Amino acid sequence: MLIVTHNIEEAVQMADRVVVLGSHPGHLIADVKVDLPRPRDKHSAEFEAMVDNLYAILTGSNPESDLESQNTDSAEASDSPSAVADSLPAEQTDAEETEAAAIADMLIQKHHDAEVEAKQNEEQADAGEQKPEPVAVHLLPNATPGGMAGLLDVISEEPDGIDLADLAADLSFEIDDLFPLVDAGTMLDLLTAENGHITITQAGQEWHNADILHSKQVFARLAIEHAPLVHAIDQALSRNRNGKLRGELILDLLRSKHTDALARQQFDIAISWGRYGELFDYDADDDELTRTVETAPLNGVAR
């Protein structure tokens, strides 16, 4: 019998085998055998370990999670593991900057005329040039700054971190309910998640311990550095002479890449994060985005 679910605990509770699928394009991420005895106790160490393992696979923190990359990269990785490990921070920073630039271009550039674009493609083909691959855009997790702050309140009390399963049990929530908050925290470098173990970072501690004004400045800096859509909107506003843009413009451009519902969700999340960090504000009545005047430097982060 085949069951499709987005709930990790449900999968571990019911299945003898869990197949994890990825999207864009659809591909196999992992095939995991669940050999726990029945009846299964969701509070047992073995059950929680299996849940943590599947969470690590879903979030990509398990090095053996992607079957395809494991097969193609294993030889190369074994030759120079230290070089690969040392290069990750710089590569991650470059990827974030490229992604933010791609979104900014999408937000501030006008649509090309179809004939002009076709002509450009034809010229590139004649010259033997390959069309550049589109930059992957990471979606903002559906989490509020208040929710992230509440999560850090709990995690900060655990100096060595806490397992995701234990965190869910302490809060009386399902593990899946915590995914958006954990994903947002890892995106903004507020916490790390490795093999289902959640630990607060130095930046997370700084934000958690800050007063109201400083907490907004810390959040603004992290959003500019790590949340490409927030960065792109702030950049687009800064390039506009009066520091204002129509919200519908942003939505229309997001709709060119996403469904209407997802575009609206991403827009709302970006507004929520931008408002909290006092980067920009949005007047829904006038459909107007306004860039907030910078009152203090963001520790060297350019706006």
UniProtKB/TrEMBL annotation:
It holds the Pfam family AAA_assoc_C. The keyword Acyltransferase does not apply. Signal peptide: none annotated. Keywords: Transport. The keyword 4Fe-4S does not apply. Residues 61-96 are annotated as: Disordered. Residues 61-81 have a biased composition (Polar residues). PANTHER family: ALIPHATIC SULFONATES IMPORT ATP-BINDING PROTEIN SSUB (PTHR42788:SF13), TAURINE IMPORT ATP-BINDING PROTEIN-RELATED (PTHR42788). This is ABC transporter, ATP-binding protein. It comes from Gardnerella pickettii JCP8017A. The lineage of its organism: Bacteria, Bacillati, Actinomycetota, Actinomycetes, Bifidobacteriales.
